[in-house]
Design goal:
Number of domains: 2
Order of helices and strands: HHHEEEEE
Strand order of the largest sheet: 4-3-2-1-5
Distance between the termini: 59 Å
Helix content: 25-40%
Number of helices: 3
Length: 146
């Protein structure tokens, strides 16, 4: 029962680990072919295969989403704000004014000050500054802060 429950509990909607899950299903198939009852102990060979598969399952769950380390965003970085509904030549320039650190120490969200080209004759802004909170993956680093 435990083997069936464990194999069935692996969720893989995108089929990334399908070959791995297949090995667990093959172990189940062998159990059925050998007509092993629900509560009977496994043969030595099947037990070794099962233990190996379980160890691989534990290692699989330890994989990190981030495969390479990238530089975290910093205050005063100059970025371009990606906008899904506009062409790249219309994306806005912004400066990072604040960073929000997640529990794992990575910057996932930033506060941006959008650039504005509407200035008066003295070079002062004619409109109120616009601040936005955006996920860091929606920005493209243009110039690193010193």
């Amino acid at each position: 029962r435990g083997i069936l429950c464990t194999v069935a509990s692996v969720y893989d909607s995108l089929r990334f680990v399908a070959p791995f899950i297949q090995k667990g299903k093959q172990i189940l198939q062998q159990l059925c072919q050998e007509k092993v009852g629900w509560d009977e102990p496994l043969s030595d060979q099947l037990y070794r295969e099962w233990e190996s598969w379980l160890l691989d399952l534990q290692n699989l769950s330890k994989r990190q989403i981030w495969q390479r380390n990238k530089r975290n965003a910093k205050v005063n970085d100059i970025v371009i704000l990606q906008e899904d509904n506009s062409p790249r030549n219309k994306w806005k320039l912004a400066r990072v004014t604040e960073v929000y650190t997640s529990a794992d120490g990575r910057i996932r969200k930033v506060k941006l000050l959008l650039s504005d080209s509407t200035l008066d004759k003295d070079g002062k802004r004619t409109v109120k500054p616009v601040y936005l909170d955006k996920p860091v993956h929606k920005t493209v680093l243009l110039l690193e802060a010193e």
